[in-house]
Design brief:
Elements lengths: L1 H5 L2 E7 L6 H13 L5 H9 L5 H15 L2 H18 L2 E8 L11 H13 L5 E3 L2 H6 L14 E11 L4 H13 L5 E7 L7 H13 L4 E5 L5 H10 L3 E4 L5 H10 L3 E3 L1 H6 L11 H6 L4 E3 L11 H12 L3 H10 L8 H16 L3
Parallel strand pairs: 1-2, 2-4, 3-4, 4-5, 5-6, 6-7, 7-8, 8-9
Helix pairs in contact: 2-3, 5-6, 8-9, 10-11
The chain binds N6-methyladenosine-5'-monophosphate.
Length: about 350
Amino acid sequence: MECWKLIPKIELHAHLNGSIRDTTLLELAGGLGKGGTVVFSGVENVILKNDRSLPEVFKLFDLIHVVTTDHKTVTRITKEQVIEDFASENVVYLELRTTPKRNDSKGMSKRSYMEAVLEGIRAVGTVEVDLSRELVAETPAVNETCNRTGKKKIFVRLLLSIDRRETTEAAMETVNLALEMRRLGVVGIDLSGNPVIGEWSTFLPALEFAKMQGLPITLHCGEVPNPKEIHAMLDFLPRRIGHACCFEQEEWEKLKKSKIPVEICLTSNIITETISSVDVHHFADLYKSNHPLILCTDDVGVFSTSLSAEYALASSAFGLVKREMFQLARKAIEFIFAGDEVKQQLEEIFASAARGLD
Ligand code: 6MZ
């Protein structure tokens, strides 16, 4: 695993509340258990369960949200669990996605939720975080994964997720928030949530508006069989899609023609049984066809994985050697939502790492 940890990596599909360590969730649930808000033993069983079907995953998310959704906790999980954990994996660019949440009982609006996320990112002290274009302009370019102080450096950008349970108005509120927060590191919009809930037509007006405003969009697409929706999503021409598990021949043809990059989350797909085993995973065909793809984690906490573990799995399952895996990681630069300046800096990081390969 150490060799996969050492190569620089780009993470483009990671959900904030899915990326929390079990130990932290248990600690937080323990606190709520003492206050009588949750029954700790029940929560413990759900958190420590290893095999999770797709419907069970969404029940778990509802539970995680009970445990995490107050400003202080959102700040903490962003700082400790997510940014520091990804940096320790040698992730050099992280596009972290999260669903802005309104929670009246905690005095939380979608905006104040996002401010708590930003506070968590800014509070990171153990690694140097590059959060927005403005900061890049102020800081001299550093071409290595470590800066002058010897700290690791990670670029972090945010995607705001629209949950499939939301109304058109709520989705529009998220898009407007993303537009307002563009200067603060928000680079795009994601559509996610339980794939058996909600209609494409509900989210389309907000997604079209986002596209019109120049916000890049990624869609969870084909996590369950739904040919009509898959076709509509591909016709929308998002900048990327996630998963693409339940495609039929016609959909594969359309996808390949479109060249829309696919965010691949191997362990997530296997644990949720959207793909029966890694040897029949569509990664192999897409890779062979030279279709743009990016190896990602989805939810490192929920699926007990890491980006290095996903690289190790892909390498062993599909017979790819270190240099090929390195190229796969490097190619992801093309598909990030941040601008050319960041791409240029990432190119330099990978060029420098390539010299030390083998
Ligand atoms: C679809 C997923 C997901 O936004 O609260 N999410 N949506 N498919 C998946 N694959 C298993 N994994 C996570 O993070 C948790 C939310 O991300 C979405 C769900 O809406 C979940 O509630 P945030 O930070």
